[in-house]
Fold this sequence. Notes:
Blueprint lengths: L4 H6 L2 H8 L7 H7 L8 H14 L2 H9 L12 H9 L7 H18 L12 H11 L4 H21 L1
Helix pairs in contact: 2-3, 3-4, 4-9
Amino acid sequence: MKYRISEINQLSQQDFVEVLGGIFEDSPWVAEKAYNKRPFADLVSLHQIMVGVVRDASLDEQLVLMRSHPDLGNKVKMSKSSVHEQAGAGLDRLSSEEYERFQALNKGYKEKFAFPFIIAVKNHTKESILDAFSIRLGNSREVEIERALQEIYQIAWFRLSN
């Protein structure tokens, strides 16, 4: 992130939300609620506060957050962060076969859990993501909601610490 924590602590609420509103995919409400917890000692503290906002949210709010994440390997409009993250894992260069496999897995996952498959792709490859898809499709909805939230927290950390 291009801001020092001292600068973040001095931002107006509007600027704070503008700067940090995309840390949690298309969910500026997380930054809006975290703003009142200033000052933050460091990025770790800021991240922990933002994670706490999501943890304290209702299940419906958490599901809205989860559903704001794009399908992996899809060619639809995504946030700039998601485009960059998926490109880093090679998801912007899928063969036709790989693309069809991702689409089938995305569809099956959404049908089972009613939200998209979420994984912090930064430390993954296409292959490891496909493996994770296969494993996680066997989870219960409750387990998968918690796993998706953990992945979202990791994505937020990567975005904050860049």
